Amino acid sequence: MVTQAEKNYDPKRIETKVKRYWDENDCYHKTKSHFEKGKKYFFDDGPPYTTGSIHIGTAWNKVLKDAIIRYLRMNGYNVRDQPGFDMHGLPIEVKVEQALGIKNKKEIENFGIEKFVGKCREYATSFLATMTEQFKELGVWLAWENPYCTIKNDYLESAWWTIKRAEERKLLVQSERVLPWCLRCETALADAELEYWNETDPSIYVKFRLKGTKDEYILIWTTTPWTLPADLMVCVHPQFKYVKAVVEKDGVKEKWWILDSRLGEVAKLGGYNVLESLEIKEGKELEGLEYEHPLFDEIPYQQKIREKEKWAHKIGLGEHVTSENTGVVHTAPGHGPEDFEIGRKYGVSPFCPVDESGHFTSDAGKYAGKFTKDADEEIMQDLISKGLMVHKGTIEHRYGHCWRCKTGITYRTTMQWFLKVSEIKDKMLEQIASVKWIPDWVGSGRMNDWVSNARDWCISRQRYWGIPIPVWICKNAQCKHREVIGSVKELSEKAIAGYTNGMDLHRPFIDAVILKCRECGSEMKRIPDILDVWFDSACASWAQLSYPQTDENINKWGMQADFITEAYEQTRGWYYSQLGAGTVAFGKIPYKVCLSHGLVVDEQGRKMSKSLGNVVQPKEVMDKYGIDSFRFYVLSASAPWDDLAFSKDEEKNVGLKNAHRLFTIFWNVYYFSTTYMALDNFDDKKVEWNKIKEHLRAEDRWILSRLESLKTDVRNNFESYELHKASRAIEYFILEDLSRWYVRLIRDRTWVEGDVPDKIAAYKVLHECLTVCAKLMAPITPFLSEEIYRNLDGTLLSVHMEPFPQSYPERRDVNLEKHMAIIQEIVESASNSRQEAKVKLRWPVKRLVIVAKEPIVVESVESLKKTLISQTNAKDIQVIPPGSQWDELILNANPKYNVLGPKFKGKAGKIAEALRKERAELLYTNLKDGMHTIVINGERFEITPGMVDFSTALPQNTYASEFSKGIVYLDAELTEEIKSEGFARDVIRRIQEMRKKANLQVEQSIDVEVQCRAEIASLFSARIDMIRTETRARNLKISTEPVQGKIVTPWDIEGEKFTISITPL
Description:
- By secondary structure, the protein is α+β, with helices and mostly antiparallel strands.
- The strands form 13 sheets. Strands 12-10-11-8-7-15 form a 6-stranded mixed sheet. Strands 21-20-24-23-22 form a 5-stranded antiparallel sheet.
- The protein is built from 35 helices and 41 strands.
- Among the domains are: 1-36 and 619-802, Isoleucyl-tRNA Synthetase, Domain 1, CATH 1.10.730.10; 201-405, Valyl/Leucyl/Isoleucyl-tRNA synthetase, editing domain (Isoleucyl-tRNA Synthetase, domain 2); 819-887 and 956-971; 890-953, Signal recognition particle alu RNA binding heterodimer, srp9/1 (2-Layer Sandwich), CATH 3.30.720.200; 976-1064, hypothetical protein PF0899 fold (2-Layer Sandwich).
């Protein structure tokens, strides 16, 4: 049985009530159990870092996932929905360092690794609890009591097994390479861990003297003067044209080798005059030329390098050289990935005189002990003093920074551990093609491009809080055998010291575990590095299944997730790391469908950040507008793969306001429905469709047809992951179809007393609309849907246990929908004419004339005439078929002087005057047939069609408005009958307002007295029954006498004074 709803939409009250209901009835677990026999569906949750409270982006991400999972369940799927949390790595370490006031690794060592790691665990765990509660607050249903956490031993064990698989496949290597390096965190980084923004750096052009010459130089350009101490070669492009030119400055001449196209510009920058070009050579002809290192005297180690390296201080060839600046690149193999490869090509060992903190080592000679960037100015001054600086300036360019601490990175040579992605790249590209990417360009474009250009994955980090790399190295320098451990069982069997059952596998505890070398019998010690934190989440799909510790879960669900969704920037992050780890471990990508959503930005399109002051907290939004409004907005505002705009300025959050307004309107429909259903003790379960079918009116059949269209639209859009379209379809149905049209059409039917079939049919249809909407909205707005479903006497414990609304094709009536759409257009046009005529809708109009452009207009009006009359409040409807005109339009004939003059000369004026006196209809008919003759003073004149223009004018009190398939004419003539009904309806409205203000129950009867002028009172004689019925008045008195009722209110209606009293009974 339906009970009357609360009058006003109060999201906070509803959401609190529903949460309590869910908790008290264990709805989440019972819903999962309800679908446990369904088809298995493995959802893999991309784990957020537990570094603080959730933000708009993480909230959107989880709401998107929750909506899709709820939809899947309602379609019968048994969804595996274990949430995940990333709890390791620099994201946590940096936060803990800030909390402890720690500035560098040395201070961590002094603080104690064990204590530091303990603080990291404590921090990560505390925010795990915080974030879990915040996600629950959003209405997100996941297995919160059992999340997968990357800090748990069984998770570490799965990651170890993956590293073991890499070792077995000979894909794990230790190698010296040049990598991005964070000087504050003192660790290697991957390319994907760099964030770029503009910085200002030096921009210098420097001369390197060619060996054996006095005045011949090759010019280089660099933004990193601090890398010049490590310079070992110079590179030119093999195909570029290089010129040897004579230049002069201050009377001194010298010769330059520079890219031919850049000579003039660079000379101008340095204040040089170009005197002549001596010769031009391709870059490959310069290979092997030797130069003098510009800082040779300042860095004694360069002497040793020259002695042992054949190609040191010589010109080499490189395809990476561009045609900018000088077309010549100074090459420091110890400080650049391309430089490193050039060095390897020419057999030049990298020279890296920079330590982990970014300070020059003793090998840097004069600059030893200085921070690299701080040494820039001194190096530049040395170059100036040597006369080698051509030009010194600055440049603003994009520069890489550590993704967590935001410190500018450097590139330096270090010994690291790698997964040989280069060996499996073709397989990875093949696997990308096997995934359904949404949108497609993420896979075919971004992902494909990233993998095609990917280097070997550096998986080692020189930090503390992370998964320890399970590699033990023999201490015997002559042996150096390594052992990769793939499980706790293997560790326990091979450990000879330091291992205890159930021990924490993190540093520093794992560092104490000693193995015995099977090659030489010496002790083996674990390397100190931990895994790249991206490797943690890379193993998520099988680690959360506790594989390989047990086969049970992976046999049940498989290692490939059916669905994942994260921001499109994860092409370089989680998408890529999963692809790499999955290909290493299983030979395939660990997901089948990948939906990439956008980023949350402000109204200017900028990514949200605290530094910009544009961050919006989800709680602020939800406290103001409600959780369902927030959920609806983030799912409907844009396509999932587009960026989502949020403003700090509440006035600009129109979408949130519209969502709240939508639910207020929906609630008003729901309140209206439940009010009358409760009054009549309506029980939907006792009313069968086949018994009320013959009582369904056109509007009932129309809304049921529209409901079928909505079901199809919502389902199709969920299936294509276009949740914005699904949400908007629901919004349109509620606002336009249900609230603004159907409820208007049936309102009078709900006022009828007794169990009239016509009214019961309207209740049945309205109940169906509300129930189906609640189910369709359930994945998007779970709180409001649950509240409405429960109060409409839903049969199951929760709306989320319901099957997604099934289709009833027999209810679709496409022609009826087309006809009703035309009626709605006509009503809109009539409304526009009413506004122009200043006639309120409560006052009827004498007539509506519709001139049709197409036959369907005639069909629509004929089939839905009662609806059109009721909604336009017109006394009569007249339709003019296509090709005909309304004969009451006033036709005017307008002589064309510019045609009559040349033809009839001086007689044209009299002819025009005669034409104006002719009946316009006769003129029109005759000219339509070809010619009209007029006679003036016995003389005949032949008038042809081009001599007269025709126009039409509206009859008095008539107004016109066009619609897509015709014109609507509204006859606003005010008759006594119309005045009678108009005043009656206005009085009814005032009485209803008085009832509302007095808080009377809908069914409560009243006595009414109305005082007005005698002339006006006489108009009501035929309207007494209508007023009594619509106001539930038992007695009604209309006269010129003062009123005597309990509640008295004076009113001004159309310039007439009324006093109305009501007395509740």
